[in-house]
Amino acid sequence: MIFSPGPNGWEVALNPEAQPQIRLNDSLWARLRTAPLAEQAAAWQRARRLVTATQMRNTSLLSVGGCIAKYQAQALSGGAMTVLTRRMISQEAGLHETTVGRIVRHVSARVGGQVINLRDLTCRQGATNQTGVGISRDTVVQLMQDLRKAAGGPLSDSRMSALLAERGVSLARRTISKYRVCGLISG
Predict the structure, then answer these.
(1) Which residues of 112-156 form beta strands (DSSP E)?
(2) Which residue of 7, 20, 43, 145 has the fewest C-beta atoms within 10 A of its own C-beta?
(3) Of 24-28, 32-36, 49-53, where does the model show the most confidence?
(4) Which of 54, 31, 29 has the alpha carbon at shortest distance from 42?
């Protein structure tokens, strides 16, 4: 997949070097069909199904890539990520959440001169602000690290939660504890 800046935002294209090239020769089939054997007909049907499956795969890739380009335009430009979960992508793209999960787990994209995994462009919701809008986990972790530095040392989970609330970020104390156990924040 290739992300490139365009006149109306980020554009998404499939990388032709990474795509399978499958073509069916209809004129050959027309010649074979004059006296087709059952095996030839079955092989031709399998080939048609393979082409259809490849086209469906490409459509799904472009759909997921389009959602990522739409919501993560700032991150693709080198800025901060916004909340974009697999569930959000699946709802917008009309795909099952597990399909989106497989795509973002196994597909990489070229952005400028870099190759990045699509999963790095999705993120969990870390908290919500006063209006209920999601804030990415990376943003919340950075805010907690900044609060810890400003305090000059470790803060308790309940104190961290209170300081975040003063800044309009709603995050449960137990979530802060989980972030600490996972090593996302220190002290």
Answers:
(1) 114-117, 125-129, 134-136
(2) 7
(3) 49-53
(4) 29
C-alpha distance from residue 139 to each of 83, 146, 157 (Å): 9, 11, 17
Residue 112: other Cβ atoms inside 10 A: 12
Does the pLDDT at position 35 exceed 60? no
The residue type found at 120 is: D
Q: Tell me which amino acid residue 142 is.
A: Q
Name the one residue in this structure whose structure tokens are 């950075």: 142
Nearest to 140 by CA among 125, 155, 156, 159: 125
Q: What is the pTM of this model?
A: 0.64
Average pLDDT in the 133-159 region? 83
Closest CA to 185 of 83, 33, 173: 173
Residue with tokens 């497989």: 102
Q: Which of 143, 122, 7, 130 is nearest to 76 (CA)?
A: 122
Nearest Cα residue to 64 out of 93, 102, 21? 93
The residue behind tokens 């699509």 is 118
108 phi and psi angles, rounded to 5 deg: -115, 165
